[in-house]
Amino acid sequence: GNFVPGHRAGGHMVTVVGASSIGTRNFLDFHDPFNPRQSRDTYRIVEDENGARVSNYRYQGGLNLTRIRFAIAESPIESNEPKATFDLNEESIMFEHQVNVSPCPQEIAILEITNTTDEVADYTISSSNPAISFSVDNVGAAPGEKPIVRVFFTCMPPQSVDAEITITGQLVGTFAELIPGSEFSMTIPVKGTVSF
Predict the structure, then answer these.
(1) Rounded-to-10 torsion of CA 164, 86, 91, 166
(2) Rounded CA gap, 84 and 115, in Å?
(3) CA-CA distance, 109 to 160, in Å (whole number)?
(4) What is the DSSP string of 22-42?
(5) pTM of the entire structure?
(6) What is the end-to-end Cα distance of the chain in Å, rounded?
């Protein structure tokens, strides 16, 4: 077969430590002795006429040639439901605005988005109400980074606000597409009182 340069040919044993699915796609988490970081690897498992194939395996064989013949599963296998890919410093936002007194636009919060994964991530920020705007509506972060997003009340229209801010994180690292739950969203309620 065609092997990827630098990948190993042959076979070895891995330990299955998690299993999950997203729609019709199935994934397994491995503890793999070939992983130099000794961390968990997640791969999509594709069934065909020859059995189970590990999609895009990093360390051995060709992209279409790595198959599961034998594996030991730790008991119990952990559930791998979608997990949070970031933390926020705010759970809700409340503000007051006085017409002709408060500034327009009025800064009402500073969001700190912490990337809690081992992958690079992109974050998209949106509001259910156009009266709420942001210093940026898309920002990237390396693992552990904490980009800042400033939140503003635009004063248009000058009336009380009941809205939601949604932050969606999408992993964009080399193997992010193989990680179950690689997209994750959080919603923050925003309530503002406008007085005249």
Answers:
(1) 0
(2) 9
(3) 16
(4) ETTEEEEEEE-TT-TT--EEE
(5) 0.58
(6) 76
